[in-house]
Amino acid sequence: MSQTPVPQMRAISQDTAGGPEVLKMITTDRPVPGPTEILVRVHAAGVNPVDWKTRARGTLVNGATPPFTPGFDVSGVVEAVGAGVTLFEPGDRVFGMPRFPHPAGAYAEYVTAPTRHFAPLPAGLDHVQGAALPLAALTAWQALVDTADIQPGARVLVHAAAGGVGHLAVQIAKARGAYVIGTAREAKHEFLRGLGADELVDYTQQDFAEAVREVDVVLDTIGGDYWARSLCTLRPGGTLVSIVPPDDEFPSAQAREAQVRAVFVLVEPDHSGLRAVSELVDEGKLRVAVDTVLPLDEAAKAHALGETDRTTGKIVLTVAP
Length: 321
Known about the structure:
This protein is 26% helix and 27% strand. With 321 residues, it is α/β, with parallel strands linked by helices. It folds into two domains: 8-133 and 288-318, Quinone Oxidoreductase, Chain A, domain 1, CATH 3.90.180; 136-264, Rossmann fold, CATH 3.40.50.720. The longest helix has 14 residues, at 134-147.
């Protein structure tokens, strides 16, 4: 008696640490949703700095080693549901950041994950825009809202304000009623003013640590000496939130001396956060900028572009038509 063949799919895989060239297209088994999970046919997958950093060092944030399929941002359509699922049904458009920091395998034609790692895709977004949002928007939301609890009138400094996380953080802070200061090259200032930034510092021409004072919250997306240099911009009682994993330079002791709070935030899958982001999109208070769109088989080119650190907004891979 012959066995039914396992459905196959295309996916990007890496077998070793290295440059963009280690990303290869493979054919592999299509995943099957377990209880409380959905199977999503991926239409587009977002590309994030964590993707190329993972590729270069050869380990995921949770320590998993190759071979694996990169990627965490997904926008697509529900293909099937597992036992106990009531939030979604086949045919629903969804977006999300499944399984982070565990392997999600977003650079593929199909992914599975728990239903609450997804949310309905806002009606006004296509899949490219949907794939650009989850990780970056959730990072900004969890840092600024859940962690720093920014309130109307707060002064917020966003580093790399034109980047994937930064440009969304500017808008989320503005939606919360904050006064937003951003660091970015002068060429990106017009773009950021269009998003609502109140004040901008060209870090190539001016030291932000001298130009900015008396802020309530700093969102650091860069790390290194930006941690310590950002402390002097904060007023006593302020908060420095870094999304860069801490090392020996993280200024915990200096923060205590300056009477400010310094914390590291690692983004988590978050159904309620995705819903909050969706509401801002629906209200016209949040829009995602997509810098470049490439097909799945050009994932290596997407990584090479991302590593230049010169993109405005996000890079997205298209998977299904």
